Amino acid sequence: MAEPYLRVENLQKQFGPFIALGGVDLEIYPGEVHALLGDNGAGKSTLIKTLAGVHQPSGGQIYVEGKPVNFRSPRDASSAGIGTVYQDLALNQLMSITRNFFMGREIKGPLGTLKMDEMNKIAHDEMLKIGIDFSDPTQAVGTMSGGQRQTLAIARAIYFGARVLILDEPTSALGQKQQMEVLKTIKRVRARGDIGIIFITHNEIHSKLVADRFTFLALGKVIGSGTLQELADEDIRKLMAGGAEMADLEQELAAI
Ligand SMILES: Nc1ncnc2c1ncn2[C@@H]1O[C@H](COP(=O)(O)OP(=O)(O)O)[C@@H](O)[C@H]1O
Ligand SMILES: [Mg+2]
């Protein structure tokens, strides 16, 4: 297999005495969707915030294309090709699609005037590449569906250089049709072949629809990882529940 674009070795993060990440290993390859699964409190958000330069690790090492890196800020991570799409998407509903696409990175002419035509075209074309043909990017983001907003945030991250795209629960706040739209977008990005995706989800079905590889976190540790072939179906159910015996819990539930 090719070199992983991103590699994490024994990553640790403590908040005071509390160990949120207790030594996590992870590899992200170009052209691969890597599902990161785990119950609430498992450490998923802490892990991706550390990869995104929001948190500094307490131990361990992050490597980008084989070289050790230390992200002191989200800007560092973003310049290294780590693009993060958070659940709230960081979009301004009242502003146009194009203005949201560029937000702070506008293309300007010599006198500082915004090159709106050029920016509209880029915003339109970049979103079209991954599946939405929004003919009028001068419309406000508020007019877009939840799935389209995800696509906008993803297209923006890619245009500005993401080689690893971190998607934090991109399907969790959406209706079922919108969820399928987002999964389609994820597959289209995957099909480019040059971008690795970390897909954080609570949803086992969604992860199986798009992911090549799975990592399960519980209490800050990796409790299982591998391809679908490597992980038997029943294992996945146990791993989703943080290693607890789901069957026991279901029996208890049925007994009430
Ligand atoms: N900034 C913080 N300060 C203290 N504890 C935190 C902080 N962020 C997360 N935690 C704790 O770390 C654990 C993992 O949280 P988190 O990474 O958000 O899990 P997940 O995203 O998998 O639900 C939780 O017990 C949470 O309370
Ligand atoms: Mg979280």
Short key terms for the protein model shown above:
alpha/beta; Rossmann fold; six-stranded mixed β-sheet; four-stranded antiparallel β-sheet; 9 helices; globular; binds adenosine-5'-diphosphate
Number of helices: 9
List SSEs in N-to-C order: EEEHEEHEHHHEHEHEEHH
Helicity, as a percent range: 25-40%
Rough outline: globular
Bound molecules: adenosine-5'-diphosphate, magnesium ion
First-residue to last-residue Cα separation: 50 Å
In CATH terms, the superfamily of the domain at 6-89 and 161-255 is: P-loop containing nucleotide triphosphate hydrolases
Strand order of the largest sheet: 6-7-8-3-9-10
Q: Given the helix and strand composition, which structural class is it? A: alpha/beta
- CATH C-level name of the domain at 6-89 and 161-255: Alpha Beta
Task: Return Rg in Å.
Answer: 19 Å
What is the arithmetic mean of pLDDT?
91
Percentage of residues in DSSP E strands: 15-25%
| Quaternary structure classification | single chain
Number of strands: 10
Could you say what the CATH topology of the domain at 6-89 and 161-255 is called?
A: Rossmann fold
Largest sheet: 6 strands, mixed
Low-pLDDT stretches: none
- What's the architecture of the domain at 6-89 and 161-255 in CATH terms? 3-Layer(aba) Sandwich
